[in-house]
Amino acid sequence: MIKIERTETPNFLKDNYKKWGREYKENKFQFSKHNKYNEIRKHLELLTNNHCSFCDGHPLGAQSRKTVEHFRPKSKFPLLAFVWHNLFICCDSCQSAKGDKFDKKLLKPDRDEYCFSHFFIYIRYEGKIKINPNASNDDQQRAGMTIELYDLNRKDLMDSRKLLFKYYKNHKRLEINDMPYRFMFL
Asked: Does residue 86 lie in a domain region?
C-alpha cells in the first residue's frame, strides 16, 4: 500500500452522494450498474496511477479486474456507498479477499498518518510484507489486520513481487509509477 493523496470530492458525487446512498439502501441496485460507476472508477484510478490501492498491483485490468472497493462495506454501511472517502480503486483479488469484512483498525491508505514504512517492512527475498516490529502494539495490530483482510501475502502476489524485483533491479531507468509494488523501491 502506497500513500494516496485524496483529491477533493468530484462535483457529481458531492452533489448526489446522499441521494444515491439512500437509493442504494432502499432499492439495493447493483453498485457497478450505476450510471456513474465508470466515472467514479476513472477518478479513483487517477489517485493511484492505475495501481490497486491495497496490493499496489499495476496496471489494473491486466491481470485482474478493476473494481471499486468500499472501505466500509456497502452491505453494512449502505449510506456510504457513494461517499468519496470510502471509495478506492482495487484489484478484484484484494476486493474478494476482504469481501464484506471490516474492522476499525484496518489501515486506510489515504489517511494523513499513513506511511508504508511505519506499519510494514518488505522482505524482498520472500516477496512478503511483514508487520514493522518497531511500530507500536496498536499499529502492529492495524498492520496485521490489513495484511490479513486484503490477503496481501497470497502466494501469487509474493511470487510476482519476487519475479518483478529481479527484473527491475536490472532496469533502473524505469519510472516508479510505471511499476507495480512501488513499496519495494522506497
From this structure: yes
Q: Does any domain span residue 113?
A: yes
Q: What is the pTM of this model?
A: 0.88
Domains identified in the chain, total number: 1
Nearest to 91 by CA among 128, 43, 51, 127: 51
> Is residue 28 situated within a structural domain?
yes
pLDDT tens for 98-113 read: 999 999 999 999 998 8
Which residues are within 8 A (CB) of 4 and not within 5 positions of it... i.e. 6 or more apart? 47, 48, 53, 88, 109, 110
pLDDT of 135 reads: 96
Phi-psi region of 18 (alpha: psi -120 to 50; beta: other; left: phi over 0): alpha
Whole-angstrom distance, CA of residue 157 vs CA of residue 165: 12
Residues 16-42: tens digit of each pLDDT: 999 999 999 998 778 888 889 999 999
DSSP string for 143-165: HHHHHHHTTTT-HHHHHHHHHHH
C-beta of residue 116 within 8 angstroms of C-beta of residue 92: no
Structural domain includes residue 4: no
Give residue 16's domain range.
Answer: 11-185
Pairwise CA distance, residues 71 & 94, whole Å: 12
